[in-house]
Amino acid sequence: MADRNFFGSTAAEREKVFIALYKKAFPAVAKYISKMGGSFDEAKDIFQDALVIYYEKTVSAAIELQTNEQAYLLGIAKHLWAKKFRENVLHTPLDAHLENIMDEEDVNLSPAMILHYLETAGQKCMEILKAFYYDNLPVNKITELFGYSGVRSATVQKYKCMEKVRETIKEKSLTYADFVE
Fold first, then answer.
1. What is the mean pLDDT of the chain?
2. Domain stops at, among 21, 56, 90
3. What CA–CA distance (Å, rounded) separates 47 from 39?
4. Tens-place pLDDT, residues 34-85
């Protein structure tokens, strides 16, 4: 359990505790943030914020740990990451992004570029994606057309096709701007 003296009374003692906590807990936080799509710098920022919160709560005796410091810091980091993700992504609807982009007069999506990356998934994937997104066919109809054993198989195949396209775009480090003429 952490107490007020856990961090020591001198700056040098506090520094040693912070370094020890960094060595013990940061790798788990960095792994989690990376797994959730964050960068190393974001992991460092989140961990430092978690460390400050932990320190403040420990010094003010606002917590009584039921787990070890590493688990507590990871929990704070997960909470901070989720909060950051919600604030940055979930509160901005996709429609708002599209409206802002489409409001710009000189923005035209390049059909050739989009088609090129869709083609990288293969002919069968192109046909499935066309049936689903362009023709707006229900999944049960796609299941029949392509001879899948069930709706779940068709859904999984559509997902795999989309992942192929996403992976190609990710490999080439493309952004939305790359698809604008």
1. 75
2. 90
3. 12
4. 888 888 888 899 998 988 888 888 777 766 656 688 888 888 888 888 887 7
66 token code pair: 């039921």
In a domain, 98, yes or no: no
- Using alpha carbons, select from 179, 171, 162, 176 the residue that is nearest to residue 121: 162
- Closest by CA position to 125, among listed 109, 149, 146: 146
| Burial grade of 45 (CB within 10 A; 0-12, 13-18, 19 or more) | middle
Number of domains in the chain: 2
End-to-end CA distance of the chain: 60
Query: Which two tokens mark 104?
Result: 């710009």
> Which residues are registered as beta bridge partners of 180?
109
Which domain covers residue 54, as residue numbers?
A: 4-90
Instruction: Measure CA 11 to chain center.
Output: 37
CATH number of 113's domain = 1.10.10
Range in 3-12, 22-31, 94-103, 148-157 the model is least confident about: 94-103
